[in-house]
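Ticket #4471: structure export looks truncated?
Reporter: QA, pipeline team
Priority: medium

Steps to reproduce: submit the single chain below to the structure queue and open the exported record.
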Amino acid sequence: MGTLRASAILAAFAVITLIGMPVQAFFLALSLPLARWFAWRYWWWVCRLVGLRVRVHGIPLAGACLIAANHASWLDIIALGSLRPLCFVAKREVGGWPLLGWIARLGRTVFVDRERRGDAQRASHEMARRLAAGDSLVLFPEGTSSDGNRVLPFRSTLLAAAGLHVDGALVPVQPVTIAYTRLAGLPMDRSSRPFFAWYGDMRLGPHLWRALKLGPVDIDIVFHPATDMSVTGDRKALARYCEDKVRDGLVRATVGRPALLPDGSP
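Actual output as written to the record:
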């Protein structure tokens, strides 16, 4: 049954993607606002196709902002992207991956070359342009992916975009927790969560195939209270604030208590 499920998902994904890619390329070539909407709906369909059941807690910021989230898997992109129009910030190598790189480019991903100092200014200008246009940008400040059971230290250098201004004010930053909580309706434990996390030197193909065979997955996404550097004081304090909120959210979600209090605080 698992093999049949995975095969059907991959076949449907290929059809949806091959049909959608030229449509999105057309929207981007003409700079049509529909490009934002189409990328969102694409992830929405993929989310349902893969069998991700996303539960949202807290209130997402509307309009231009930075989202600082933990990162465990390629499924993070699908889950977040299905919620509303978003742009992701990724390392430049992703743009060169077969198929996935094309999807990322068509999804309006901002690529950053971490090995070239001179690229930081270009990336900053591009992010400022996106924010000025009202886009929400997703950052993964851990700088890599984890096993899904923990949050790695947030790197303050990866939050450099928090120093950008939108309409004369510092861009707001919202910490977001992504937690894998249930598999086929049953609670996940520490041993099963890494089946969906893609980290270390795992090969994507075998990992993807195994994950798709296992069954539908519940993901809790917790939007924590936003802040900015005028409140935290500097980028390092901002990174600590976001890391603390995201880590606390992961602990709560994995023990079955992800919901926020009525006032929006954790």
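Status: closed, not a bug. The export was complete when the record was re-opened. Leaving a note from the reviewer for reference: The first helix runs from residue 2 to 29.
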